[in-house]
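Researcher: Here's the sequence for the chain we discussed earlier.
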Amino acid sequence: MRRREVNCRLLKKFGVALALCLVPGWCAAQELNCAVEVNAQKIEGGSKSVFQTLQEAITEYMNETKFSNATFAVNEKIDCRLFLTVSEYTDDRITGDLQVQLSRPVYNSSYTTTLFNFKDNRVSFEYREGEPIIFNETTLEDNLTAILNYYAYLFLALDFDSFSPMGGQPYYDRAQSIVQSAQSLGETGWKAFEDPKNRSGVLSSFTQPSTSMFRQMLYDYHRKGLDEMVTAPDKGRAVITESLNAIEKIYQADAMSAALSIFRDSKLDELVNIYSKAPQTEREAVYKLLQPIFPAENERLQKIRRGEEQ
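Model: Thanks. This is the structure I predict for it:
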């Protein structure tokens, strides 16, 4: 099912004019609405123009490339953010870390929820000032395009999963192809056993059988939980509470899974607010489930237990 088909049904359900889907050009947009920032404050001396042109090139690439055959309306674009902090720049090679964020609207509200929040500490690529970044669906041009394509497909996969059960599979497959191809580039961040929280490890946390229940949780938590909370708070929150059992199962299967840190960085603050008005028994149950998994986050988890707002 295409995203437009999913969302048009949702729009109809929530009272938005379905006739918009029939407006010429309304469904012709690329998939991403990506904010890009390149921070090179750590680099001393020399011209900084290369970093400005890099920021512009990545912005154009992420927002003007069509990464899939899915049909998107302009107001359905996926909101995401790439924040690159440059730590080294030598002979056209840029090294640093990349903060990656993905968000999703909650229906019938002005609230936006974070789907994915991750810091990629193994980013290194060559870039010459003014050089265009070119999309090639079948061949990796270089490590920069590999990284950008990987996150574009991961954004699509996670977004589709949040709207329909396991709906992002085609995009996980494409991301997996990139991981496999990129391993031959000799660049850091792609090898399966290099680091459980590198790009390969992140993808595995969604696709390997022992932790793939994270994907079903994305749907239950967002579509059946948050989307319902505006009109039925107790019902929606109950679904979210039930969905958190997946986190316990992931922890039991692989305590080092990147899924756990992704969930922590994306959802703990939100959960504090979700349970601020929940019954004590429900708050206590969530605390007891999450505290052994995230013992270093006890301050935030205690707020859930006490019913405080973030």
